[in-house]
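Many groups now describe folds with learned vocabularies. In that spirit, our science desk offers one protein's residues alongside their backbone shape tokens.
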Amino acid sequence: MNFAYIALSFLAPMARAFENATKDPMAAQRRALLEYLCRNRNTEYGRKYGFAGILSIGDYRKRVPLSDCETMRPYLDRMAKGEDNILVSDKVLFFGLTSGTTSKPKFIPTTGYSESKKARLTSLWSYYISRDHPNVTDGRILAIVSPEVTGHTEGGIPYGAETGYGYRGLPGIIRGLYCLPHAVFEITDYDARYYTILRIGMAHNVTDIATLNPNTLVLLCQKIAGWQDGLISDIEKGALSGKLNIDGAIRKKIEKGLSPDPERAAELRRILKEKGELLPKYFWPELALIECWKGSTMRLYLDELGRYFGNVPTRDMGCLSTEARSSISMSDTGAEGVLAIETNFYEFIPKENMGKPDKKALLCDELEKGREYFIVVTTPGGLYRYNIDDIVRVDGFFNKTPLIEFVQKGMSATSLAGEKLYESQLNDAVNIAARKLKLFIEFFLAVAKTSTPPRYEFLTEFSGSVGHGQKLAFLRAIEEELPRQNEEYGFWREAKGLGAPVLKVVRAGEFEKYRKKRISQGALEGQFKLLELTLDQDFDKNFVIEEEISL
């Protein structure tokens, strides 16, 4: 037991209050909504829609229209130019920049008030982790985020990654456990950044790892073998390789925290000699938990984590976006979390109704287990009835409050012949096929080809050596599983409305090259998620295709 654990234990009353609130979620929702409307009643948006006269949830839904990134963009753009009192009465301190992998980047405002609301959720998250894993704070925390500030708006307000901003704003007692200084994330050369993360992390006894995308951890582990001699030497000398492409000012900040550690270097050499390879399960034997996204497309990488980290528990990060943190995970099981009913006000649109003009938004007490919904949020940061374009599934209930799990980003669905195949259905089919054949995948994406007849082409980069027979079996296994996930796919295949799928094997290393390219174009590294289903007919031109296999 240590001081950090004792401090976190004092959060138990906050957790009990939250759990009590889940017994009557609509009471908590009503309080949160009316508090935000009252606070912002004199803003331009508040006056336009009469916030001062709204006394109930029903009033709010009648007066205020549903919104999305485009309808809110004019307001947000004016705020970015420095105009005040547009959506929020508080001063905007920072803009979170959404990942550019799915749409035009958007600025999401953060104020001191909204930051305090998010901090409460972070405290709850930390409490439940320390409750279930009391030894998680015995060592150091390796957290990997994107840079906090990547630029300034026309009005001089900084913008960047919400994860980086949150990293800076952590309570001192927690921040003191983090082994990576924020300067590491400011390194622009990605190989240099990965090397530095490993260089610092491997010098410590890491007991907790936190990063949104588990693929980041897989990538780091794959790089160790090529750098191991240099890493051990740098740890021994207290140095950071001079060959790395790192800005001088950033290097100076990082090197200030380094010191020689010949004892740790000797231990790493011993592990390498005895085990034949340096893997986290050997040099971080006390690792207690990995925090990352576990649902949707991330499941492909979770299977691979075991190769490098052994049997370490993983906890889902929850439904977390630049716009809002919408859930709190209370256990390591599954990817579901309790709806954060005290932090945002939520509405839900059934997935199948999203395209209908008369679609109705439901409240959290109207949801059904097993159903999927678009999530619409009203936040303390000035978003009102805002469609995040995320689909969540209700996995059950904690007391009377829904347990939600992220399913996919938006209407990631294609329909070449009437099958309306969702990305989530494709993802499940691929995961089942890969596990059945015990294959590991670096990258997977399906292109819906509008050929004659139309068909699906599966771009796949395998991890390790995979024979032609295994590749063919993988393609066949996907084709067998897809009709189980989507009956219409099976119908149209039999009816010849869809042609046989094709597997296009991507050359090793191609996905990493593409990822670096996208990040250099503005996509956020820590939040980088590539859609697994696209209608872009030329998407395969981003990669070198080594082999093409058909049924």
Q: What stands out?
A: The domain at 3-113+317-409 is CATH 3.40.50.12780 (Rossmann fold). The two ends are 58 Å apart (CA to CA).
